[in-house]
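Hi both,

Apologies for the delay on this - the queue was longer than expected. I finally got the S-adenosylmethionine-bound model through. Below you'll find the protein sequence and the ligand SMILES exactly as submitted, and right after that the structure tokens for the full complex including the ligand.
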Amino acid sequence: MLFSPNNLFLRRLPGRLKYVFLRFGLHNLLGWIFFPMFWLSRMTQLGAWVARHRQVPFNDFPSAVFNYQKRYELYKFVLEREKLDGPISYLEFGVAAGDSFRWWAAQNQHPDSRFHGFDTFTGLPEDWGLFKKGDMSTGKQIPEMNDARCQFYAGLFQQTLPSFLRSTPLTHRRVIHLDADLFTATLYVLTSLHPYLQSGDILLFDEFNVPTHEFSAFTDYCRSFYVQTEVLAAVNNYYQVAFRVL
Ligand SMILES: C[S@@+](CC[C@H](N)C(=O)[O-])C[C@H]1O[C@@H](n2cnc3c(N)ncnc32)[C@H](O)[C@@H]1O
């Protein structure tokens, strides 16, 4: 049988291919197809993921028009459905000028809530699609908030998050807003926060359907840590997605 596990030719084929690839440096010939193949592979995974997650309590899919303001409808839905008007520990990764951060601090007025915003405030630390390193910089300007519950941490997450987690107890229900766009930043945050996440916590993504970035970070994280989640809401064809940790 051709596809039998006892077929010696098939069992040896991956090893042979690897030998040829490494021995003859085929990366020199094939390097140019790396990104299209990688994108196609992750896009196929995203397509399969979307097909499995069509039944979502709040979902605009398929939506012909992209409307960034819809993310506020998603936040409102999640806030009401999950009763997030009580004390929360809100952590936002990727704050920039503070648009989404301000929304959450204004909507949740509980005096015990705490709002923590993380950003370089000097822009993206690496290229992201058509955006270049340094884009989205606020020129080190931190959003002005007239609210003692809010604090900002300037620098790379990779530098600010470890000491934050050592010194700050996340006592209330956690709402984690991932809006850093990048695979590296998103994966770093998810894996760092993993020991602190509990069932019922909320994860919000702002660019979820970018197959090689937030989507890849989320799926790699969930696979590696055996994390189960439930999709609560999605807008703009899964560009913004909200999850509850199970
Ligand atoms: C799309 S913007 C955030 C937008 C904001 N949440 C809003 O609602 O307008 C993405 C931000 O992520 C930040 N960022 C990306 N990777 C980072 C990292 N590793 N450490 C710190 N900040 C990062 C960038 O500096 C940028 O300001």
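Main takeaway for now: Residues 57-245 form a domain with the Rossmann fold fold (CATH 3.40.50.150).

I'll put the files on the shared drive as well.

H.
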